[in-house]
């Protein structure tokens, strides 16, 4: 089964409220970041691996000219319906995070809730280069990924691992470790890191 088929199956078979990563509201750490004015809600924002569009809609409502992208066409169709219902204008794409169909230097801010931690090790460099290509110089990349406190796994990271992977290309402005009660009722640990591209 391809990556596309796997995600399509998940979104087709499961009700939105049963998906672990769908909280039914924007991620609190994203809301806190925007409200803190550390990232100004202006210019163009991309919600990478946007899923059902909850965070995408928040970014548009906050003032960004917003785009959402997800590999699942089913997720994107749901996100489009949600955006229309919310009365916000958002551009959505159905495409892989390894094949970003955008212009160089197009975005001022990229939000990544759980996209990076699904990128396999051999594809990480291509993933990062894709982000660097579409993010403006000194643009912000806000990445949330699984913490190693969840237990050992290939996609659970320590703070040192995150910095080792991204520091050749980004300045880490802040990092926080937090836990969240996810949509499936389980508590998971995450790192949220705000990077600035060089």
Describe, in plain words, how this protein is organized in 3D:
- The chain has 198 residues and is an alpha/beta fold.
- The protein has one domain (3-197): 3-Layer(aba) Sandwich (Rossmann fold), CATH 3.40.50.
- It has six helices and seven strands.
- The chain has a seven-stranded mixed sheet with strand order 3-2-1-4-5-7-6, with helices on both faces.
- β2 (65-70), α4 (73-86) and β3 (90-94) form a beta-alpha-beta unit.
- The radius of gyration is 16 Å and the shape is globular.
Descriptive keywords:
198 residues, seven-stranded mixed beta sheet, 6 helices, Rossmann fold
Short summary:
The chain has 198 residues and is an alpha/beta fold. It has helices at residues 3-13, 28-36, 54-62, 73-86, 124-134, 159-166; strands spanning 44-48, 65-70, 90-94, 107-113, 135-146, 170-181, 187-197. It is globular.
Outline the secondary-structure elements.
Layout: H1 3-13, H2 28-36, E1 44-48, H3 54-62, E2 65-70, H4 73-86, E3 90-94, E4 107-113, H5 124-134, E5 135-146, H6 159-166, E6 170-181, E7 187-197
Parallel strand pairs: 1-2, 1-4, 2-3, 4-5
Antiparallel strand pairs: 5-7, 6-7
Number of domains: 1
Straight-line N-to-C gap: 37 Å
CATH topology: Rossmann fold
Unreliable sequence segments? none
Q: Helix fraction? A: 25-40%
- SSE pattern: HHEHEHEEHEHEE
- Compute the number of helices: 6
Give the percentage of residues in beta strands: 25-35%
Which strand order do you get reading across the main beta sheet? 3-2-1-4-5-7-6
Average residue-wise pLDDT: 95
Question: By helix and strand content, what is the structural category?
Answer: alpha/beta
């Amino acid at each position: 089964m391809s990556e596309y088929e796997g995600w399509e199956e998940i979104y087709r078979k499961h009700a939105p409220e049963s998906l672990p990563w769908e909280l039914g509201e924007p991620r609190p750490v994203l809301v806190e970041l925007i409200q803190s004015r550390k990232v100004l809600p202006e210019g163009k924002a991309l919600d990478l691996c946007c899923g059902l569009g909850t965070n995408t809609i928040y970014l548009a409502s906050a003032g960004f000219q917003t785009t959402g992208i997800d590999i699942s066409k089913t997720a994107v169709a749901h996100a489009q319906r949600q955006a229309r219902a919310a009365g916000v204008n958002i551009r959505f794409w159905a495409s892989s995070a390894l094949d970003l169909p955008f212009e160089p230097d197009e975005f001022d801010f990229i939000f990544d809730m759980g996209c990076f931690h699904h990128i396999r090790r051999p594809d990480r460099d291509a993933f990062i280069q894709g982000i660097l290509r579409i993010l403006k110089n000194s643009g912000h990349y806000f990445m949330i990924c699984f913490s190693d406190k969840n237990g050992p796994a290939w996609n659970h990271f320590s703070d040192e691992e995150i910095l080792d992977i991204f520091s050749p290309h980004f300045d880490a402005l802040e990092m926080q470790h937090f836990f969240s009660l996810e949509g499936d009722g389980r508590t998971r640990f995450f790192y949220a890191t705000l990077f600035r591209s060089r």
